[in-house]
Specification:
Helices cover 54% and strands 0% of the residues. It has 7 helices and no strands. It is globular and about 35 Å long.
Length: 142
């Protein structure tokens, strides 16, 4: 597990994605969840609606094409946002860093966590990259 991020680190990562200044090597699995918990915690922000555009713009700014085989992935993003939202709901007044640590210490901390819910063929199909596709192994718990 990567070292714990502070609330300030989480905000820096999220703002770096928003303004497309986060160095590409810092856009890790943990950073995706850091941006998710920060966006979900912002009053008046609809993270499920806004994060797709933010990731697409960030990808383009860092030289990553958004295609049927790389770049933005809608099903992964929405599943990750659901996981992060469920974690945030457990203790609303807890620092974001504690929520991020809990996410990364559990199944979501593994980059392959989604394979408990989707087969590889379904998750990596262009339809799942372009839009939400329901799990084909078992329903998400959140």
């Amino acid at each position: 597990m990567p070292p714990s991020l502070t609330d300030a680190d989480i905000e820096r990562i999220a703002r770096g994605v928003i303004d497309c200044t986060l160095p590409k090597p810092e856009w890790t699995h943990a950073a995706h969840f850091a941006a998710a918990v920060w966006l979900l915690s912002r009053p008046g922000m609809d993270a499920c609606r806004e994060m797709p555009g933010l990731i697409r713009a960030y990808n383009e700014a860092t030289g990553v094409a958004n295609t049927d085989t790389e770049g933005y992935h809608e099903t992964i993003t929405q599943a990750s946002l659901r996981a992060a939202a469920a974690q945030l709901a457990t203790r609303p007044d807890t620092p974001l860093s504690d929520h991020l640590d809990a996410l990364l210490a559990g199944p979501c901390g593994r980059s392959d966590w989604l394979f408990a819910y989707w087969t590889r063929a379904v998750l990596f199909a262009p339809t799942a990259r372009r839009g939400w596709v329901e799990p084909d192994v078992q329903p998400l718990p959140f």
